[in-house]
Amino acid sequence: MFTNDEINLMCIYNTGTREGLIAELEQMRGYLGAEEAELLSLTDSTLEKFRHMSDAEYAELDLLPDFDVETE
């Protein structure tokens, strides 16, 4: 349902509730400029999915970041 990038974005702004996360993403989105089109698109797609899910579905999400970190 969510891409890795969407999950990572959700982990960064997660407040513990679906409504709280939506509010945080909407607030963050307000600071983005047109030059940040990729992040705007990612945020919009994430918000759209959240608006169509229930709190129960949100509670089932495993919001653990999947950052590809290279170690030396």
Structure description:
- This protein has 72 residues and is an all-alpha fold.
- The protein has one domain.
- The chain has four helices and no strands.
- It has helices spanning 4-13, 18-29, 37-51, 55-59.
- Helix 1 crosses helix 3 and helix 2 runs antiparallel to helix 3 (37-51).
Shape assignment: globular
Strand content: under 5%
Q: What is the domain total for the residues?
A: 1
Roughly what percent helix? 55-70%
Biggest β-sheet, characterized? Answer: none
What can be said about this structure in brief?
The protein is an all-alpha fold. It has 4 helices and no strands. The protein is globular.
Topology:
Blueprint: H1 4-13, H2 18-29, H3 37-51, H4 55-59
Helix pairs in contact: 1-3, 2-3
List the main descriptive attributes of the protein structure presented here:
72 residues, mainly alpha, 4 helices, 58% helix, globular
